[in-house]
Write a structure and sequence with these properties.
Elements (H helix, E strand, L loop, with lengths): L3 H8 L5 H17 L13 H12 L4 H9 L2 H5 L3 H8 L1 H14 L7 H17 L2 H15 L6 H21 L3 H15 L1 H17 L1 H18 L4 E4 L4 H11 L3 H4 L2 E8 L2 H14 L1 E2 L5 E2 L12 E6 L4 E8 H9 L2 H6 L5 H23 L3 H12 L3 E5 L5 E5 L4 H8 L1 H5 L1 E6 L2 E3 L11 E5 L16 H32 L10 H10 L5 H9 L5 H9 L5 H6 L9 E4 L7 E3 L11 E6 L3 E6 L15 E6 L7 E10 L4 H11 L3 E9 L4 E10 L2 H12 L4 E6 L3
Parallel strand pairs: 2-6, 12-16, 13-15
Antiparallel strand pairs: 1-2, 3-5, 4-5, 5-6, 7-8, 9-10, 9-11, 14-15, 14-16, 17-19, 17-20, 18-19
Helix pairs in contact: 1-2, 1-3, 2-4, 3-4, 3-9, 4-7, 4-9, 6-7, 7-8, 7-9, 8-19, 8-20, 9-10, 9-11, 10-11, 11-12, 12-14, 19-20, 19-23, 20-23, 23-25, 23-26, 28-29
Length: about 700
């Protein structure tokens, strides 16, 4: 069992005596606070904080972090307040302890909502001080190591939570050692029999392949000595969880996955990394498409190494080449920042900056997300990245997850650039905004003033930042449009009472707002525009005597003139054209309130609106504005004689009438006749009449009609 004296001895390698003294004081304080408390295994509770501090000592974290590890359960389990810890150990340590205590209270339920909500809390704690999550990861690691005494259902719940949340965070922060152990322990707890089988198979395989591994190692060491390149070679173990994941993902057997020998060569500088690459490629042939240079292009979590796979004698050999500093950063990730801050290590600092940027992006997504489920959906892309590297026209490198599009690229540069994107060039050629990018491409974004995000982008963007920004913009746009529509509807309804909005007193408006439980007039107008409130009822409330507002809700007053709202067509996100009847200028139209989503414009003859025509709760009468220049979709059914070139004749006739064919479909009716279904773009009924006249003049056309579903 570890002791505080053994830990203090280890800490002498990188902390001074005064700092070690604070850590020891924190231990004795926690020991006294947890007096009489025991773990499920029967051990004194203090063994847990001490073990957590030992995990952090492996990462060589600072004395504040180690002290917080000793005290991390004191606030929650012993009732000692934060102020008492602050008085004893200072504000920084107290803040860390408080942050970890709040994370410890988080219960990741099986319900997605609860899990998402709690992940938001974790993000807030990380934003305050990222060391909080390091203490929490060490706490989780020791809990995973000591899962044995718990009930099977509790073991599975903790293991699921570890694999879903904590291991990916450890990976994102670059702490490879903790990530691997959390994954393996989680896998063993979830699938004990599968883990046992793989472990046994690995042990047997290692024994039978020992001679081959040693032969390859000696051969490489001899070549390094000949060339005078310093370095050491390590055999790399494949971990249980990663073996299982590969077997599952690639649907291959254990022996197919394990038919690879893995080595890591660690040298003293970057130049020697590339010399070693030349050496191994000279000794064994490289496997095409299996080379990755993460030194020139580091991973999102700061990981750097050269990866190559070689053809050996009857086997493949995986090689990783890196420097000593890169090896430390690969194993300790963000913790390298505290380890090297005294000698101003560039690697450690860049790692810390990457982590800070990630947490900052998480905070931005959290602010823009409507709810916690949407937030965690965005975060998943950032926790499980498969990176690509693309260039700006000026040569700046951007890391994006695999499958990212030019729109993701635009938002990665800046939110404003993403919002005003209209087109892009990939390697100087115009390309679609939805095309997935590939590593090495140069992407140029073309913007335009006044441009705005397209809702269709949500169908193909992959980064959380792009998704959250597009949704945030569209939500704001919808609110603005809803307020404008709500104001127009309210004014029209007030006209039936011979009143104007500016004639209503502030006192009366306040009473109506209070009655409707609306925080402001803008919010009330927004709800009217979204169809959540009736403009007619609100208008009655505003003109009714202020003492009898309730009566305005109870009945409708018959009005001789129904208010009609003039529109120019589908107006953004709040006014939309119905797909069923496809109304166009010139058609008599009505608006059907789609509660919470605005107004859907239908033709008066549409079956969906007939029963609501005289119901102001569901329906608003609309009229078309004059001189509309927009184009509208219309469906036509054309019966034609079957002969060669008939489609070309139809297309030519539509074009001559200044129409535009959006979609065309041909169905065989019998041996002599075919039915052509058309969707064409026209400016209104007069334009549609011209198109239909042109089509009727064709000798092949036997009948033509407009389709209204």
């Amino acid at each position: 069992m570890p002791t505080i004296d053994a830990l203090a001895e280890r800490l002498k390698h990188y902390l001074d005596d005064a700092q070690i003294c604070i850590v020891k004081r924190a231990f004795y304080y926690a020991e006294q606070a947890h007096e009489g408390q025991y773990r499920q295994s029967g051990e004194p509770y203090i063994t847990h904080p001490l073990a957590v501090a030992n995990v952090l000592a492996d990462l060589q974290l600072d004395h504040q972090c180690l002290s917080a590890a000793m005290l991390h359960d004191v606030i929650e389990d012993t009732g000692i307040p934060k102020d008492a810890i602050s008085g004893q150990f200072g504000e920084s340590i107290a803040e860390l302890v408080d942050g970890v205590s709040k994370l410890t209270q988080i219960e990741f339920k099986s319900k997605a909502e609860a899990q998402a909500e709690n992940f938001q809390k974790m993000t807030l704690a990380m934003a305050k001080d990222i060391r909080v999550i390091l203490v929490k990861l060490a706490d989780r690691l020791h809990n995973m190591r000591t899962l044995g005494p718990l009930r099977p259902d509790k073991r599975r719940r903790i293991a699921t939570e570890t694999l879903d949340i904590y291991a990916p965070i450890a990976n994102r922060l670059g702490i490879h050692t903790i990530c691997i152990e959390l994954e393996d322990l989680g896998f063993q707890a979830m699938f004990p029999m599968r883990a046992k089988y793989i472990q046994e198979a690995v042990r047997k395989l290692r024994g039978s392949h020992y001679e081959v591994i040693e032969e390859i190692r000696h051969k490489l060491e001899a070549r390094m000595k000949e060339r005078g390149i310093p370095g050491r070679i390590q055999g790399r173990e494949k971990h249980l969880h990663s073996i299982y994941q590969k077997m599952k993902a690639k649907r291959r057997s254990f022996h197919d996955i394990m038919d690879v020998y893995a080595f890591r060569i660690i040298t003293n500088n970057v130049d020697n990394c590339y010399r070693l690459l030349g050496l191994v490629h000279g000794e064994y042939k490289p496997v095409p498409g299996r080379f990755k240079d993460y030194i020139a292009l580091p991973k999102a979590n700061g990981y750097q190494s050269i990866h190559t796979t070689l053809f050996g004698s009857h086997v493949n050999i995986e090689i990783q080449i890196r420097t000593e500093d890169m090896d430390r950063v690969a194993n300790t990730g963000i913790a390298a920042h505290w380890l090297y801050k005294e000698d101003d290590s560039k690697l450690g600092k860049s790692q810390h900056l990457r982590a800070q940027k990630w947490v900052k992006d998480l905070m931005e997504m959290r602010e823009r997300a409507d709810d916690s489920l949407e937030f965690i959906e965005h975060v998943k892309f950032d926790l499980f990245p498969d990176e690509i590297y693309v260039f700006t026209p000026k040569g700046r490198i951007l890391e994006l997850p695999g499958g990212a599009t030019p729109v993701d690229f635009a938002y990665a540069i800046h939110t404003d650039i993403g919002n005003s994107t209209v087109a892009c060039r990939i390697n100087k050629h115009l390309a679609s905004l939805s095309v997935p990018l590939k590593s090495g491409q140069t992407v140029e974004i073309i913007t335009a003033p006044g441009a705005k995000p397209n809702p269709a982008w949500l169908n193909f963007v992959t980064t959380g930042k792009a998704k959250s920004n597009i949704r945030h913009y569209l939500k704001q746009q919808q609110q603005t449009e809803a307020r404008a529509l709500g104001k127009r509807l309210l004014k029209k309804n007030l006209q039936t009472f011979d009143k104007r909005l500016d004639e209503i007193s502030e006192q009366q408006i306040d009473k109506v707002l209070k009655h409707n439980q609306a925080p402001s007039l803008e919010r009330l107008l927004e709800e009217i525009g979204l169809g959540s409130r009736m403009a007619y009822i609100v208008a009655r409330q505003l003109v009714f005597d202020s003492d009898h507002i309730d009566q305005a809700d109870s009945h409708y007053e018959e009005v001789t003139t129904k208010p009609s709202l003039m529109i120019e067509g589908a107006d953004g996100q709040v006014l939309t054209l119905a797909h069923c009847c496809k109304p166009i200028p010139g058609d008599p139209i009505v608006g059907l309130f789609n509660r919470g989503a605005g107004v859907m414009i239908h033709s008066e003859t549409c079956d969906k609106v007939k029963k609501h025509l005289d119901d102001p709760e569901h329906c608003v009468h609309l009229s078309w504005a004059k001189n509309i220049t927009d184009e509208f979709s219309v469906a036509l059914r054309v019966e034609v004689e079957r002969q060669r070139g008939v489609i070309a004749e139809i297309a030519s006739a539509v074009t001559l009438a200044d129409g535009n064919i959006e979609k065309i479909n041909v169905e065989e009716q019998n041996a002599k006749l075919s039915v052509v279904s058309l969707i064409i773009k026209v400016q209104g009924r007069n334009h549609l009449a011209r198109v239909m006249r042109r089509l009727r003049h064709l000798l092949v056309v036997t009948s033509i009609s407009r389709v209204r579903h």
